[in-house]
Prior knowledge:
single chain, alpha/beta, Rossmann fold, disordered N terminus, disordered C terminus, DNA-binding
Amino acid sequence: MRSSWADLAANSAAENAPTPPPSAAAAVANNAANTRPVYVPPHLRNRGPSAPAPAAPAFDNSGSRWAPPPRNDYRGGGGGRGGGGYGNRGGGGWDRREANPFADQDDSEEPVTQEEQENTGINFDAYEDIPVETSGGNVPPPVNTFAEIDLGEALNQNIRRCKYVKPTPVQRHAIPISLGGRDLMACAQTGSGKTAAFCFPIISGIMTGQPAQRPPRGVRTVCPLALVLSPTRELSMQIHEEARKFSYQTGVRVVVAYGGAPINQQLRELERGVDILVATPGRLVDLLERARVSLSMIRYLALDEADRMLDMGFEPQIRKIVEQMDMPPAGVRQTMLFSATFPKEIQRLASDFLSNYIFLAVGRVGSSTDLIDQRVEYVQESDKRSHLMDLLHAQRANGVQGKQALTLVFVETKKGADALEHWLCLNNFPATTIHGDRSQQEREAALRSFKSGNTPILVATDVAARGLDIPHVAHVVNFDLPNDIDDYVHRIGRTGRAGKKGLATAFFNENNTSMARSLQDLMQEANQEVPAWLSRFAARSSFGGGKNRRSGGGRFGGRDFRREGSFSRGGSDYHGAGNSGGGYGASGGYGGGGYGGGYAGNSAGPGVTSAWD
DNA sequence: AAAAAAG
């Protein structure tokens, strides 16, 4: 598929003239007469007439099936509205024009108004005074602007189209680390732009890196250069949509594959070429076993919600994909793990997939205090429905134009989700539900309907707990509390995103006593008001410690497990040994004492644990 | 024990 880039380059060199790509021999000859490098990075391939003519590629495969006809996705100026030709994704068969992922947005060149920024952008004021913790050797310093990083003009333009003005904290730190070629384990807040944090370096790396060799002879096997895995289908879809925006007109192709949807369409997309494959594990294993995908060329591996991907349910599949197929080993490929939460048992498992990695935890002080208002109410099992009804009524009263604010209600079981949805509808609350017993079509329809406000109440199992970015979720209700505090963190993280405020209400009763202590600790750390009755439950249940207890007092949602043992446990002074200056150059390495935490000198109170993506 | 992920 590299050759399709080559064709593009050739095409571009000919100023978009409809001439066939040069033969390999011609390419070589041309190159011999020309000292320019043979490889043309994708960000140069869509250049307009003013761009210097790139050298012809040395690896042209014209005549083979890997050299499809030249793409015609150059559009004058590159940034304009472009008129027709968009939205032909899925139509047209061999029409290779790239659908405009920004088609549904106002693409005018008007400066972004304050209001717009407020409504659509990220509220960066919410990200001041971020505590940052890094460990590992030679940590690259963070950047403050996208301009400081050379991501290439095409990517920069997409960043502007996305209305990203400056990098979020996780992006400031993670992008230089990734661009530096380092493996990374990153804990980052919910809704703080973590997808971009791993997409930008991957796209940039593919654009500027060496051209890929031709895929092996397996006729229909495709060889992506990057693999992004996520635990749910909807999250994979979302990552794919984001990544498509970031890679628009870069020549980098992103394809998604997940279960529950017809495989044939996904196969067709794969055959058109794939640089970045976004997938759920099951469908990927299927594709690997059918030999439709080979991982032999993988340079970048990203696990989103990495702790989830490595817990009991997923670990075997992930090991199979990463260790037992044909993926290059750690140290050869570059591996990036992202999550809000990273229990140290899982960190230990994860380290199998990493090589000399940097651990990064980025959080903001008092984030939950400012952004997610957490409440816990004591509600008997039998009273939950009527209590929920009260909340919804109160909200409706506050709603704009009688419109219900978006409310996401988490329950424990799929049956429970159906039952609650049914009951809500009976009571004139337009609700829908998403869970694993529904068809993929139903799941996607439910999500759409919720996002659009058509059914402003979504009853969900944990399938919706992680990663999903649903704008304007005003309220997350933990109708049934999860059994794991990390799940709670992810669930409430569906609100209070991109610097906006949110509300989270949990129903607590005797069935949740195992959560009392961890919930109390979490809320305390986030400067939330803890009801006295909850503290009593916590005191009562705390003797055994409890599996939900976060070690060391849990100032951060994540902490490098490699540092365990080099500090006295008990966590009275989590950051005490770190220098609180700007020293990002951690020198410690594994378990060494020389941890240079770049803790952003905050004395305003306890750190944050609340919302980590 | 539940949920998710292949069909």
